[in-house]
Write a structure and sequence with these properties.
Blueprint: H1 6-17, H2 23-47, E1 53-63, E2 66-74, E3 79-84, H3 89-95, E4 103-106, H4 110-118, E5 123-126, H5 128-138, H6 144-164, H7 173-193, H8 199-215, H9 217-220, H10 229-245, H11 251-265
Parallel strand pairs: 1-4, 4-5
Antiparallel strand pairs: 1-2, 2-3
């Protein structure tokens, strides 16, 4: 949990507890814990396809100098980590399977869209924060029409997020939900009616026109959020750990990491 190396743990125990432990003892302890956590990890993996909504994200992982990927699946009651050699749709097929009929909350990465195309029972809430980054990039265009269009979009997006974060005691639930829906519709009109005829602008608009419902589902459905912050926050621990440890060396180390990360996050 504190991203400490074996040598750091040895030094801590020696200086604070007067306890000298060999590195092999610590390695064996980790492996014993990893083995004991396997049934719980497997149980959570079986539970994921039954969830109504799952935040998903992935980040790189190194194992003996080879690229791997750490995937996080964050459900309301637990968080599951899975390390895999690929970043493809195949991982989603393995973990979510064909039975998943909930909402996949993720960024616009192609693997998620491919999974949704192949599994029509599932739906998505795509991350609006990633869409905002693209709009801000459009606002740095050399074309004045692009900058103006990006500015109009950012105004509507800012208003939408202000509504989302408005204190709930100032608005009745029905009025707040109606205001969210109306602002989402206003955003859709700006995207479709005021777009300039430039390539950069159309790259942004094409994405929203095709998946506008998946960007704005949170305005209609309780329990959904406009961003994928839940998954990204869960990955912060992994990113810090990667910088400290430089990854894993074997399948045993991989299993230790994904199981102990799952336990800590859950």
């Amino acid at each position: 949990a504190c991203h400490a190396s074996f040598r750091t743990i040895q030094q801590f125990l020696r200086e604070t507890c007067g306890l000298a432990l060999a590195t092999g003892t610590l390695v064996n302890a980790c492996q014993k814990v990893a083995q004991s956590l396997q049934p719980a990890h497997d149980e959570l993996r079986r539970q994921i396809p039954q969830e109504l909504s799952v935040n998903i994200d992935e980040t790189s992982h190194r194992e003996n100098g080879q690229w791997q990927w750490t995937w996080v699946f964050r459900a309301p009651q637990f968080t599951l980590f899975h390390i895999d050699p690929t970043r493809s749709t195949e991982v989603l097929n393995q973990v979510l399977g064909s039975d998943f009929a909930g909402t996949l909350m993720a960024d616009y990465y192609s693997a998620y869209r491919s999974y949704l195309d192949a599994h029509p029972r599932a739906d998505a809430q795509f991350c609006l924060a990633h869409f905002i980054r693209d709009v801000k990039f459009l606002g740095e265009s050399l074309e004045e029409s692009d900058r103006q269009f990006a500015g109009e979009l950012l105004v509507e997006l800012k208003t939408l997020f202000q509504l989302w974060h408005a204190p709930r005691d100032t608005l009745a639930e029905t009025a707040w939900r109606a205001a969210l829906i109306a602002q989402g519709q206003r955003l859709e009109r700006v995207v479709t009616d005021r777009v300039p005829t430039t390539k950069l602008a159309w790259n942004v608009v094409r994405r929203f026109v095709k998946h506008g419902k998946q960007y704005l589902r949170f305005t209609h459905e309780p329990g959904l959020e406009p961003t994928n912050n839940a998954a990204e926050q869960a990955l912060r621990h992994v990113v810090i750990d990667r910088k400290v440890t430089q990854g894993t060396r074997s399948l045993r180390g991989r299993n230790w990491c994904q199981r102990i990360w799952t336990t800590i996050a859950t």
